[in-house]
């Protein structure tokens, strides 16, 4: 996880010019591609739109850009991989606290 210096916040705009602030949680590599995981800020955790936002890094003219993951199968695979990594990390953290 990228918690060495705390999480970063970014502001992105959608195609209609609406701006959203996102909290960057982690970077992951999966299937030969790089993804970034975010949470939206400024909305309640009870809001149905609240949840992980996974954006794919796309190279265009030598510049790294954020792209949406439109393929539902790809998005589900990346999400499942990320959740598995979180579970393994939490398990390792809890095991590190147990002294036998």
Task: Describe the fold and architecture.
The radius of gyration is 15 Å and the shape is globular. It contains one helix and five strands. Helices cover 25% and strands 40% of the residues. The model has no long low-confidence stretch (mean pLDDT 87). It has 100 residues and is of the alpha+beta class. It has one helix spanning 72-96, and strands at residues 8-13, 19-30, 33-40, 53-60, 63-68. The protein has one domain (8-96). It has a five-stranded antiparallel beta sheet with strand order 1-2-3-4-5.
Radius of gyration: 15 Å
Strand content: 35-45%
What is the SS-derived class? alpha+beta
- Overall residue-averaged pLDDT value: 87
Walk me through the topology.
Elements: E1 8-13, E2 19-30, E3 33-40, E4 53-60, E5 63-68, H1 72-96
Antiparallel strand pairs: 1-2, 2-3, 3-4, 4-5
Key traits:
100 residues, 40% strand, 5 strands
